[in-house]
Design a protein that fits this description.
Layout: E1 9-15, H1 44-51, E2 56-61, E3 72-76, E4 83-84, E5 107-109, E6 112-121, H2 123-132, E7 135-137, H3 143-156, E8 160-165, E9 174-175, E10 200-203, E11 209-212, E12 218-225, E13 233-236, E14 245-247, E15 250-253, H4 263-273, E16 277-279, H5 285-297, E17 304-312, E18 317-320, E19 345-350, E20 356-360, E21 369-372, E22 378-381, H6 387-416, H7 418-422, H8 425-428, E23 431-433, E24 445-447, H9 448-456
Parallel strand pairs: 1-4
Antiparallel strand pairs: 1-2, 2-3, 5-6, 6-12, 7-12, 8-9, 8-10, 10-11, 13-22, 14-15, 15-21, 16-21, 17-18, 17-19, 19-20, 23-24
InterPro entries: C-type_lectin-like, C-type_lectin-like/link_sf, C-type_lectin/snaclec_domain, CTDL_fold
Protein name: Secretory phospholipase A2 receptor
Organism: Collichthys lucidus (Big head croaker)
């Protein structure tokens, strides 16, 4: 949990000479091997020919993809891209540095704020108590916050409700605040017995998620505080072509996943569908999760599809086809060395885990088309303060000036053609009736012609 936003990984005290013993001399009793390793960028022959004689040391992955976060893999000990973590024995004569006896009202971790509520409560009671504290039952969507909450609940030493629940007898689960459910951390000891309709989930003292009847009383619950302040909300009227799926500001077509085309053929296929579309680009973890959920729900777990990324020979770097900045990546460990790439280098992603791999652009793979649709209407709703008051005042001033100009123009036209207006019999007998209670009998009725006479004096 302490590594979020840090380097791609850290060295830990294990190497290939004795993989069963830590460098401290203790025997290895726990392992967390990665399903993939950095040698994914090279085939087995290339790996053996280049690095067979080099010593390998263990890296703990800090990849933000939850399939790899915290996993272990071997890397050349001479590699300099990693950080490290030091460990020393705890002094048992001193009290623990952290204690949960007196928790603050708000517990901060990265960009999240948590609250802990205590007392025997059902899942529904927990939701109500979180709401009373201006928060929601917690949702856990990545391994970093899971690790943080694991430490917190472990120190509290009792299980706590979280915001996960089911409405279909345990077939599907959802977060009460609507967060995505791609990341999970079920306890291995949890089983499918005694499943009840509307069952709810709690975090046990070991951090694992377990199911229970929603009316079961538990000692506490974890709440997540919504971000403070009201942010402007912008809604877009986005219309996607038929059979395309809308997400954010883009439209996605998943039909070509079953096609087998080269990288350039895939790009041309997308352009023929919609001239503004191209092969899929992924700009955030949220977008990556959306794409994976769509593919998983359609049963494409074992497919590999093109990403709209290629090696730009002119800039000597990997680039997106739409020119967008490379702010998000999802390599198995670290980004590939561009010195080893050629002009025929493209990138694909495996649907099973969403990881990115290099491949030749002439390979034949499936693909997804994506288009950024022009926004028809943009509506912004924001608090009326500061600059918004200024805008309203300016609008009122402009309206007053326009009205004054129109009134002046009408008065000028009237004075210029006064004789014509005087010949109108209907205007000669028109009058303005004074309604004030203070008006005298002599000025109760004022003829418009009299007003004209006085105004000319």
């Amino acid at each position: 949990m302490l590594l979020q936003g840090s380097s791609v990984g850290v060295w830990i005290g294990l190497w290939d000479e004795d993989p069963d013993t830590w460098t401290s001399g203790k025997k290895v009793s726990y392992t967390n091997w990665s399903p993939v390793s950095p040698r994914s960028f090279l085939n087995d022959d290339e790996w053996v020919s280049r690095f067979a004689n080099e010593q390998l040391c263990m890296v703990l992955s800090n990849n933000h993809n939850f399939h790899l976060t915290g996993k272990w893999y071997f890397e050349r000990c001479s590699e300099s891209a990693y950080g490290f973590v030091c460990q020393k024995p705890q002094d048992v004569s001193k009290p623990p540095a952290h204690s949960c006896r007196h928790l603050p009202d708000n517990i901060e971790y990265r960009s999240h704020t948590y609250k802990v509520v205590s007392g025997n409560m059902s899942w529904y009671d927990a939701m109500h108590m979180c709401t009373e504290n201006d928060s929601d039952l917690v949702s856990v969507t990545d391994a970093y916050h899971q690790a943080f909450l694991t430490v917190l609940v472990n120190r509290l030493a009792v299980p706590h409700w979280i915001g996960l629940y089911s409405q279909d007898s345990g077939i599907n689960y959802q977060w009460s605040d609507g967060s995505d459910t791609v990341y999970t951390h079920w306890d291995a000891a949890d089983d499918d017995e005694d499943i009840v309709n509307g069952e709810c989930v709690y975090m046990d003292v070991n951090g694992g998620w377990r199911r229970a009847d929603c009316e079961t009383p538990l000692p506490g619950a974890l709440c997540h505080v919504s971000p403070a302040g009201i942010k402007p909300f912008i809604s877009y009227e986005l219309v996607c072509p038929s059979t395309w799926v809308k997400f954010g500001q883009g439209c996605y077509n998943f039909e070509p996943v079953v096609e087998k085309l080269t990288f350039e053929e895939s790009r041309e296929h997308c352009r023929q569908k919609v001239n503004t579309s191209d092969v899929l680009t992924i700009e955030s973890e949220t977008e990556n999760r959306f794409v994976l959920e769509q593919l998983w729900s359609s049963g494409f777990h074992h497919h590999t599809v093109w990403l709209g990324m290629y090696f730009n020979f002119d800039t000597d770097s990997l680039a997106w086809v739409d020119g967008s900045p490379m702010e998000y990546t999802n390599w198995p460990s670290k980004a590939p060395d561009t010195k080893l790439l050629t002009a025929d280098t493209c990138v694909n992603t495996r649907v099973v885990d969403g990881l990115w791999y290099l491949s030749r652009c002439t390979e034949r793979l499936g693909f997804i088309c994506k288009t950024i649709t022009n926004v028809g209407t943009e509506v912004e709703v924001a608090p009326i303060n500061g600059v918004y008051h200024g805008v309203i005042a300016a609008a009122v001033l402009v309206a007053v000036l326009v009205f004054a100009l129109l009134a002046g123009a009408m008065w000028f036209m009237y004075k210029r053609n006064a004789s014509r207006f005087q010949r109108l019999p209907t205007l000669g007998s028109a009058y303005y009736r004074q309604t004030s209670s203070q008006a005298t009998e002599s000025d109760g009725n004022v003829l418009i012609t009299d007003l004209e006479a006085h105004s000319g004096e």
